[in-house]
Design brief:
By secondary structure, the protein is α+β, with helices and mostly antiparallel strands. It folds into 2 domains: 5-228, no CATH class; 244-286, no CATH class. 32% of the residues lie in helices and 28% in strands. Mean pLDDT is 87; it is low at 9-14 and 288-293.
């Protein structure tokens, strides 16, 4: 298919089958703040019908190729949000990379990007990912590793990170999901927020999609993984913005504290302040409070 990038030449195995690794972009979400932007390549269809809105928008249309366009009639600052699902990208008249490049060149910000690596006859078992994680043999900033497996339902999925995070990965038995037999495992990374835009830029720079995955999760001691993911890691770390409270703490509060220390002539109050801060921080960690909206 035109939207799939072949990453390796087929390699014969001892059993006479061939290994094959390929990659594709499996989801693109992009927001245009300028609602008058030219959001789509001219090759894409203009046929559309109204559909149910989501993501906080109150107006939505679905094009005949599957992409969804979302707007808000009274909140123009939300811009126009466009969603290309994996199905839409596979059926599209243009390549996903073309859609991605067009969106960025016309003022869009990518808010979700899914990268999938398909591994055929490679012996890459999701169960092995679980074993590597259990023995602390994975390199990632993720802290949670949910596992999905049903004894009566085919399939096995190892997650790296939570779905609510700005990035997570799942390694799963794609053949079982499709209801077919065979050695077919998919490694799928989903990037959101600022990480999605960083991942999009990396992909358009020509970075190997496997490197984008390895920038989030890597298993250096897993031989099958190392053979398949033979690409330089490409980090997509989130650029954190300061909240108003943090800005105030770094400017007004910090300068006021510095002035008090200067007038005192010694640093005794500074250490007292740090000890009090640590006390309250430990208390919050022991008894988490609910965040307010």
């Amino acid at each position: 298919m035109g939207d799939r990038i072949k990453l390796t030449d087929p390699l014969a195995t001892n059993r006479g089958v061939r290994k094959e690794v390929s990659a594709l972009l499996d989801w693109i979400s992009v927001t245009f703040k300028d609602t008058k932007s030219v959001m789509y390549p001219q090759e894409l269809t203009g046929e559309k019908v109204e559909c149910k809105p989501f993501n906080g928008y109150n107006q939505a249309v679905r094009f005949s190729d599957g992409r969804v366009e979302l707007r808000h009639t009274t909140r123009p600052e939300m811009g126009t949000h466009v969603v290309y699902s994996g199905y839409t990208l596979r059926q599209s008249a243009v390549l996903p990379e073309t859609i991605l490049r067009w969106s960025l060149e016309h003022g869009g910000t990518v808010t979700r990007l899914d990268v999938a690596i398909d591994c055929f006859n490679c012996g890459l078992k999701p169960q092995r990912a679980t074993e590597e994680i259990e023995h602390d043999r994975c390199q990632t900033k993720a802290r949670l590793f949910p596992l999905w497996h049903d004894a009566k339902t085919p399939g096995y999925t190892q997650y790296v990170g939570k779905k609510s995070s700005t990035a997570f990965c799942r390694i799963y038995d794609k053949a079982a999901e499709m209801g077919v037999s065979g050695d077919y495992t998919r490694v799928e990374c989903s990037f959101g927020s600022n990480r999605a835009h960083a991942a999009a830029l990396a992909c358009l720079r020509g970075s190997d999609y496997r490197g984008v995955v390895r920038g989030f999760i890597d298993f250096s001691d897993w031989s099958e993984w190392s053979e398949i993911m033979s690409a330089v890691p490409v980090p997509t770390r989130e650029t954190r913005t300061l909240t108003n409270t943090k800005r105030w703490l770094l400017s007004a509060a910090a300068s006021s504290l510095a002035r008090e220390l200067y007038l005192d002539g010694d640093d005794e109050f500074y250490f007292r302040f740090i000890d009090t801060l640590r006390f309250h921080l430990d208390k919050l960690r022991e008894e988490p409070i609910e965040e307010t909206a």
